[in-house]
């Protein structure tokens, strides 16, 4: 097995100590940092995304894989000029106003970061005006909103309305997710997409930005 395939396997199995060691070894052997990221770390994380979507991997395993990926990236970051760091696009994310649930959102963040997105994570209990300010300050291509409570779902619509009022709606795609959310709710409030899980959210953003 090549070093790249080995590194992918270490990410898939969530072996962060192994992923760190092998990444360092590959750096010491003069392998291009971007090749290590694309052919080793990201290749592994792409498999994780597919398996998670298929129900063959579960939340704790995905978190271990994301950690393995991050330990490798941390070693490589200083070796790569910012402009060369692969980025799949910028996503502003938060859990909506009144809602404190963040485990799912954090999983979406980890999966997206591992897939090369630049993430601005606003946190939880984010009011529409704060999302609007985030769009003005960070100019993301996508806003991702999470809600776990039926009572906080309307805050997603309020946020879309606030973007419209500020004339920002056409400058950004809006995607939503969380246990009570559905595609029909996304259609109803005029969101650009819905994702049932972290892997699907990553695919959705990739497709919307492409
Ligand atoms: Co809360 N809670 N909770 N809770 N909680 C639920 C959601 C609930 C279903 C439990 C129940 O009654 N069976 C219920 C909601 C009922 C409803 O609205 N219909 C509920 C309630 C009622 C409450 C409180 C009101 C309880 C109370 O105080 N009386 C309160 C509300 C607080 C508030 O938010 N204002 C509350 C509080 C809490 C805790 C603080 C104790 C804790 C949260 C800790 C934290 O997040 N830091 C908590 C938890 C842990 C849960 C359960 C048990 C688990 C949620 C979770 O983390 N799931 C939950 C019951 C359950 O789901 N079994 C429950 C794991 C996570 C990986 O899945 O979040 O669905 P999930 O994320 C998935 C997808 O949904 C998707 O991807 C993720 C990964 O695949 N996804 C996105 C999520 N966000 C996305 C965004 C995207 C795309 C995909 O953007 C594009």
Automatic annotation (TrEMBL):
Pfam families with a match to the protein in the record: B12-binding, B12-binding_2
Keywords linked to the UniProt accession: Cobalt, Metal-binding, Methyltransferase, Transferase
B12-binding N-terminal domain span: 1-88
Lineage: Bacteria, Bacillati, Bacillota, Clostridia, Eubacteriales
Name of the protein: Methyltransferase cognate corrinoid protein
Residues annotated as signal peptide: none
GO MF, any single term: cobalamin binding
CDD domains the UniProt entry points to: corrinoid_protein_B12-BD
Entry-linked InterPro entries: Cbl-bd_cap, Cobalamin-bd, Cobalamin-bd_sf, Corrinoid_p, Met_Synthase/Corrinoid, Meth_synthase_dom
Source organism per UniProt: Desulfosporosinus youngiae DSM 17734
Similarity comment: Belongs to the methylamine corrinoid protein family.
GO cellular component: cytosol
Domain spans labelled B12-binding: 88-210
One of the GO biological process terms: homocysteine metabolic process
Gene3D superfamilies: Cobalamin-binding domain (3.40.50.280), Methionine synthase domain (1.10.1240.10)
């Amino acid at each position: 097995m090549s070093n790249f395939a080995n590194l992918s396997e270490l990410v898939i199995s969530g072996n962060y100590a192994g992923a760190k060691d092998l990444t360092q070894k590959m750096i010491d052997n003069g392998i291009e940092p971007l090749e290590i990221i694309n052919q080793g770390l990201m290749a592994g994380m792409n498999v994780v995304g597919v398996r998670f979507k298929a129900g063959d991997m579960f939340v704790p395993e995905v978190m271990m894989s994301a950690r393995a990926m991050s330990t490798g990236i941390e070693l490589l970051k200083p070796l790569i000029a910012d402009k060369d760091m692969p980025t799949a696009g910028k996503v502003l994310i938060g859990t909506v106003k009144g809602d404190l649930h963040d485990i799912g959102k954090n999983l979406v963040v980890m999966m997206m970061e591992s897939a090369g997105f630049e993430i601005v994570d606003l946190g939880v209990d984010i009011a529409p005006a704060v999302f609007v300010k985030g769009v003005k300050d960070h100019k993301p291509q996508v806003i991702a909103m999470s809600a776990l409570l039926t009572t906080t779902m309307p805050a997603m619509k309020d946020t879309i309305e606030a973007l419209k009022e500020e004339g920002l709606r056409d400058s950004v795609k809006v995607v939503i997710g969380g246990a009570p959310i559905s595609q029909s709710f996304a259609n109803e409030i005029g969101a650009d997409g819905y994702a049932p899980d972290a892997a699907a959210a990553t695919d959705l953003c990739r497709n919307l930005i492409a």
